Amino acid sequence: MKNSGFVDRIDLPIDRIPSRWYNVIPDLPRLPENYIDNSTGEPVTQEYMERLLVKALAAQESSMERWVAIPEQVREAYKLWRPTPLVRAVAFERELGTPAQIWFKYEATSPTGSHKLNSALAQAYYAKRDGHTRLVTDTGAGQWGSALSLACKLMGLDLLVFMVRASYHQKPYRRYLMETYGAEVRPSPSNTTDFGRKILAERPDHPGSEATAVSEAIECVYDDEGARLSVGAFSNHCLLHHTVIGQELREQLAQIGRTPDFLIASVGCGSNLGGFALPFLEDKLNGADITILAAEPEACAPLTHGEYRLDFADAGGRGPGVYTYTLGHDFVPPPIHAGGLRYHGCAPLVGLIRHEGLLDAVAYPQTEVFDAGTTFARLHGYLPAPESAHAIRAVIDVANECTRTGREATIVFNYSGHGLLDLEAYSRYNAGLLRDVEEEDFAAPSMEALQV
Amino acid sequence: MKNSGFVDRIDLPIDRIPSRWYNVIPDLPRLPENYIDNSTGEPVTQEYMERLLVKALAAQESSMERWVAIPEQVREAYKLWRPTPLVRAVAFERELGTPAQIWFKYEATSPTGSHKLNSALAQAYYAKRDGHTRLVTDTGAGQWGSALSLACKLMGLDLLVFMVRASYHQKPYRRYLMETYGAEVRPSPSNTTDFGRKILAERPDHPGSEATAVSEAIECVYDDEGARLSVGAFSNHCLLHHTVIGQELREQLAQIGRTPDFLIASVGCGSNLGGFALPFLEDKLNGADITILAAEPEACAPLTHGEYRLDFADAGGRGPGVYTYTLGHDFVPPPIHAGGLRYHGCAPLVGLIRHEGLLDAVAYPQTEVFDAGTTFARLHGYLPAPESAHAIRAVIDVANECTRTGREATIVFNYSGHGLLDLEAYSRYNAGLLRDVEEEDFAAPSMEALQV
């Protein structure tokens, strides 16, 4: 029966915040491949991992424990916004005229506006507990950087963020947010590392990239015994922490007596899809008819257009080598507004389930994505991040197929974050200026434009 | 007993969204004075009110019904985010070392980020129901404008927003949000009204003000039989709609067995204080020891520094005359970042309870306000709007007084909205550039700077 309102909502009480994270590795049809130390070509050693990462996180990376207890202080911090609502997009269903029900897990209620805080709090907690004094990380558009900035402030750690230089100057709001939380934010390339100075010497107007930012972050970690690298996606431990999303979702769907037919999320590296969908993987392996669907940008779609092979995790090959879907570590994604989806590869666990035939993928050009995001915002008010709008675009196709076949499916997507700090991109869309691949506006800015 | 975490939270289930608004007028110690038609000096007629306002809202303005049923469609729309959480700021208590408990009603979870949507939805609903085709409004920083833009889109109405011209160009994110929701936004002064053309002819680089925006909005209403004026604060009906805040708060406090000793909110015109605190006025009149405290900006503090008298509601005297606390309708507030608090007067109901000795008031300079807001953000992650940060600044003084006297008081403040679209101001604070009264940066921009 259709509801005449705008939304329905299933909330969970605060004491239903999950008490443990779900580790999918023991349930996978086969184990992930080892990480490779690029300097030796051999599997990485424990020493290698613990010099780069916080000890507890390095251990989680290859843990075979199915359930990992969430430390009490992290669970206390989750009370800042969790559990998140499960919302039924009634007006969207009506607009599409579909017999399907469309629900979304609304992760945008976190103080920093996205799901990223789930793992940021865990990473900062373990870093503090294991005696480190500082984390170093990289960020593009800044969703991860702002989440980790808050987490480090709450847990009592210093944080250094290398932010892609063009974003540092052109998209300053998330930088301001990081600074308000007390983090030090440097544009990358910077003149504070050997690597940064090297590429600035070659090209003084270098606008930066994720690759330069990670390389500078790793260099800072090796220069400071008390520091460790923190990553906002990619790693197994990061996906592990985000499984609070899928666990809450299971309980919320059970309350309304439904099981998901489609689980849809955008994928840049895989942190939001992983946390949202991996807790349902065992059901699928046990025969449940669940389609897990990754929505990628057409401009950078490793799951749709890439291949599964060993490749570097970062452009310079300073991090480990991994098996996953990749477009090649030297692929430079064209400039699009969904900054969180501009990675050449994806998380090894996401690549693995794709390789095993457990994950579907589809790619969309950004004009279609902003069209979907704007439609959604006008029906419900919630303005999606460009990343989340990819999932919404995919939902339209799935719902329309349900209309064609008359299937009363349950479609659930992950609303990973809000787009309030991405309004510049929406303004371009509103003005009819958005193209599928931006050029001039995102070209390397001059030193003058960068105010350096 | 102190909690060791960051927050506690009291949520209400979705079916506890209030079903009626509370109208304080019948419970006041005396009735508000009549509005005055400035062209006659006499009380306004029903005809005058209904030409300016939506008929149902004009009726609510002087209603003596204690309870007003919330229309089903408005209550359905409230499900987009209501009920809002009541959050205990445990980390803030710990930081202040106070024996008091500090709670806040977290209105920032609305899709547009503030409490303003409570009334916007009601106003758009009645406008549509009463056969109007368009609303016209004014907005400064844009919290009201973005809420009404969404409400009009949801209810199926056109909306024209006059946005103070300097904000239109210098603070574009809320403008982009309004446009994404489909509203037409014009800078004020504009060349689309007689009044706008008149003041542009006198001063081509006029940066605009609330006064110019209201005057242009009223002119457009009189030029279009299908249009009505919508106001985001000031009016009795606007405060009425916001009483969902205080009603939910009563229920949440009852759940933890507490009654409020201090109810604290910022006041520009009074919509957030009114909705939050008026539902507790009867308790106070019946002898409960409740202090209701308004936090104002030192730069524009009618309750603290103004006088209670008949004055114009708008600078040009085109709207009605009212009795309230005012700094004079020709007072031009110095430029501060809390754009929502820059009004020369306050809502008549708020003025009346102040005049009757039922409301305390205190004023703070903006550097202290941003210091309080930043401290709060670093303890809990929630970045307050500059308006809400005034309430937080007042909480510090009250909590410190409790520390001095050992009083285990219950302090509750209204967190009226988030500051994610105000990050430019936080960045100035972080950089040590913020002054109590800005000058150069907010001076009338040149035509060139405005890109007109």
* CATH architecture designation of the domain at 2-18 and 71-113 and 238-430 in chain A: 3-Layer(aba) Sandwich
Largest beta-sheet details of chain A:
7 strands, mixed
Radius of gyration of chain A: 21 Å
Q: In CATH, what is the class of the domain at 2-18 and 71-113 and 238-430 in chain A?
A: Alpha Beta
The chain-level mean pLDDT of chain A equals 92
Shape of chain A: globular
Order of strands, widest sheet of chain A: 1-6-7-17-12-13-16
Structural class of the secondary structure composition of chain A?
alpha/beta
Instruction: Please state the oligomeric state of the protein chains shown.
Output: homodimer
Give the termini separation of chain A: 59 Å
Provide the low-confidence segments of chain A as ranges.
440-452
Q: How many runs of DSSP E, i.e. beta strands of chain A?
A: 17
Number of helices of chain A: 19
CATH topology of the domain at 2-18 and 71-113 and 238-430 in chain A: Rossmann fold
**Largest protein interface, residues of each chain:** A-B, 46 and 47 residues
Could you tell me the strand content of chain A as a percent range? 15-25%
Helicity range of chain A: 25-40%
